[in-house]
Amino acid sequence: MKKVFSYVLALVAVVTLGGAIATTANAAGGEAAANSGSNASGVSSSVVASSSVKKATKKAKAVPAKKRVKLAKKYKKNARKVVLKQVRKGSKITLKNAKNQTVKNVSVKKSGKLTVKLSKKQAKKLNKSKKSFKASVAQKGYKTYTVKFSIKK
């Protein structure tokens, strides 16, 4: 009984040691083959481990200039509608005045053309600089970008 117990104990020790070596080698990013020779009890074992570790982080792409959001109609001072074109479904648009104060946040429900309706207070806040305003666009899988629009009198 003692002999069987010592065989089992030796086998467990060898497998554990081989697994620890293989895990350490895999953490370093390579393939590992941990072979152990015969021990005092005459048991030999080999453990081969390999892994293909892929990084899940993807870098966000920049939206090409041709595909960025643009004004469909020129924005006139104190107008209560901002008409944007080339918007993509699921993106989030933030209208800001030249002082970088957020005027309105909009989530795009449908790709194409988008009309953003403003209250009188929001229109007045958007026109604080009297020359321009900005739209920040955040899309999934892309870097957030900002487009500057001029205000016509």
From TrEMBL:
Entry keyword set: Signal
Signal peptide annotation: 1-27
Name the record gives this protein: Bacterial Ig domain-containing protein
Species in which this protein is naturally found: Levilactobacillus spicheri
Biological classification of the source: Bacteria, Bacillati, Bacillota, Bacilli, Lactobacillales
